[in-house]
Request: fold
Amino acid sequence: MPNAFLLDTNAVIGLLNREPELIRLISEIAEVYVPAIVIGELYFGAENSGRVEANLKRVDEFVAGNTILNCDVNTARVYGRVERQLRVKGRRIPENDIWIASVALQYQLTLLTRDAHFDAVENLSIQSW
Reply:
């Protein structure tokens, strides 16, 4: 999928917070996708906040307006390869981020993130803002 981004959690939060540089970057891209894992992290953040109902509503509205990619058997296969590569390198990253990277690899999307630990994932295209 050329000209397409997969959004990491920090990119979605940046969009929700209306970060100008991020909005400019996203507006130049043809397609934007969000992995279901990121949505789970957003719901956790909402549930763990001081404004639960308001934040749950923000997540619901974001979900309604975006294309969410779910994990399947193909994602799990990629996950297994990525997890093994990271262990061989001795480079551990958060479990959810391995799933997010796996979705990006599966669909050949550029991951939009500010998390440097994704650099350890082989063949993962990454963009920051």
The CA atoms of residues 53 and 69 lie 25 Å apart. The first strand starts at residue 4 and ends at 7. Strands lie at 4-7, 31-35, 67-69, 110-112, 126-127.
